[in-house]
């Protein structure tokens, strides 16, 4: 029988992992931000051992870099890595749509439409949530495809794309992404795989083009106050 204390430690580590991951996806934590075990432990109310387990999991997903004697930082993908990640993402998402067009149900379409409605609502009031929801639309597509392995890889690559956009993207209207998502839904409603893949190609190409220009960011932000929003 599993030890209760080990289960508790595992759930606490998962809570820290989930909070940090969400902060990264919502671009509250930016590439290059330093993550100290003491600060994370203080904000989440956990030990450094639990923090290390969460950071190791984020490192395995390519979201955090761990350097001996230097600690953890939010990963900073190079432009070459960014190209490779977007290329892999396009291949994965085309496969998702090829599967999904054959099996999608009216209920699935309704779920996708509800999600896009949430994106539109967040776009007007909550920029961080809008960023997260835009990525989660693609993860939902993968989950609906019925292939758990495919969904896991899409989840990882979408998360890494969030880092790329935080590093290199130029300002754009989120309405573009919402409209592009709606076009994908319409193609799936028609059970038209070729049209859906063409819409996805156009969408991801637009996302890639929005990641052309490097932007500078403030490296003196208060990490403690940022983490407070995700430690609940």
TrEMBL record:
Transmembrane region(s): none
Top-level taxon of origin: Bacteria
Domain HTH gntR-type stretches: 10-77
SUPFAM superfamilies in UniProt: GntR ligand-binding domain-like, Winged helix' DNA-binding domain
GO molecular function annotation: DNA binding; DNA-binding transcription factor activity
InterPro entries recorded: GntR_C, TF_FadR/GntR_C, Tscrpt_reg_HTH_GntR, WH-like_DNA-bd_sf, WH_DNA-bd_sf
Keyword terms of this UniProt record: DNA-binding, Transcription, Transcription regulation
Protein name: FCD domain-containing protein
Lineage: Bacteria, Pseudomonadati, Pseudomonadota, Alphaproteobacteria, Hyphomicrobiales
